[in-house]
Amino acid sequence: MSVTAIIAAAGSGERFGVGIPKALIQLGDRTLLEHAFASLAPVVDQIVISAPPGYEKQVSKLLGDGVTVVAGGATRSASVRNALAVTTGEYVLVHDAARALASSDLARAVIAALKSGESAVVPAVALVDTIKVVGTNGYVASTLDRTSLVSIQTPQGFNTAALRRAHAAGADATDDGALIEANGGKVKIIAGEDRALKITTPADLHTALGFLGFDSTYRTGIGSDAHAFGVGRPLWLAGLLWPDQDGVDGHSDGDVAAHAICDALFAATALGDLGSNFGTDRPQYAGASGVQLLQETLAIITKGGYSIANVTVQIIGNRPKIGRRRTEAIAAISSALGGAAVSLSATTTDGMGLTGEGKGIAAIASALVFKQ
Ligand code: CTP
Ligand code: MG
């Protein structure tokens, strides 16, 4: 019997609140989507990813050939439908990229239940909280009996034809089991697992890091950088191009904010510094963008077993004025660092010193990391 896994990965991650789709956020040594993919790949015959629209190519590159990528829809159900259209398996597992750490064993248990004759199988765990129904007036209408309630997870397994029928009307539901139920189908509950938690907020990411064996020993590092203004150079700062501003001289693009952050990350992880990792003796980094160096730094510290808790950078100079583009700059840096928490401030020095005299721009950064 052939099995397809659909990974719903098209959500924007509104509640997580960084500038990149949640499935592409870094968790330990890989993205949420790569974790989900790695646990399903050994147990299924075909994998279809419902990718955030516009990110199809990036997702293909991340997961390699052999994976079918479709554009997701406006809702989770629509994303699943788009993937169902190219599903070839007799059975299908529908999984949330956000449940990145669900194990291969859980997927195997779902498939085993399908093989034993079930046509819809949903993993679930007991509830910890008491659930109340709230009336429109803000008062409790009733309290549900917790012993008969469960919290559902993915991967959920289905007979593909049955799931197609359940989706045929184009209905929306927060899980696929609900569509089968609405169609009068029987949905079998099997034991879920704590590590299949849905990563919704940064706090959940922290819980997930615990499952991966990251301890809570934090390390901090600082970094700084300064460049003099140069003639005829574009200004790159904090991952952004600043048109109509004088650029700075340097081996790379001279993005002092990016460089200070890289150094802070290297300092926190004791993995050298900007010079030892990307110095002038490495010609491949001549002209490298700040964003590229941030990405490379993330790859190096990730390989060293570290994960970023947060990064903060202060830009010191008379110009450009940062405030107007602060959000954009934070998003550019965060995205280069796999969705890490980033803050950015700027200051002048009351006309004193090299930056105060308008001779250049400087930045100082600090980073907090923890180790696996
Ligand atoms: N999903 C999807 N297509 C959508 C919305 C969600 O494929 N239009 C996927 C998400 O990528 C996620 C899963 O469905 O893997 C569960 O959704 P959720 O955890 O709510 O993720 P997001 O929608 O990305 O998060 P938020 O609701 O906070 O924006
Ligand atoms: Mg959502």
Q: Care to describe what's here?
A:
This protein is an alpha/beta fold. Strands 1, 4, 5, 6, 7, 10, 11 and 12 form an 8-stranded mixed sheet that branches. A 4-stranded mixed sheet has the order 13-18-16-17. It is built from 12 helices and 18 strands. Helix 11 (326-336) links the parallel strand 16 (306-316) and strand 17 (341-347). The mean pLDDT is 95. It has 2 domains: 3-200, Spore Coat Polysaccharide Biosynthesis Protein SpsA, Chain A, CATH 3.90.550.10; 219-371, 2-C-methyl-D-erythritol 2,4-cyclodiphosphate synthase (60s Ribosomal Protein L30, Chain: A, 2-Layer Sandwich). The protein binds cytidine-5'-triphosphate and magnesium ion. The site of cytidine-5'-triphosphate (CTP) has 23 residues, from helix 3.
Summarize the structure.
The longest helix is centred in the C-terminal third of the chain and has 14 residues, at 256-269.
Mean pLDDT: 95
Helix content: 25-40%
**Secondary-structure element string:** EEEHEHEHEHEEEEEHHEHEEEHHHEHEHE
Count up the helices.
12
Task: Please tell me the CATH architecture of the largest domain by its name.
Answer: Alpha-Beta Complex
Provide the number of structural domains: 2
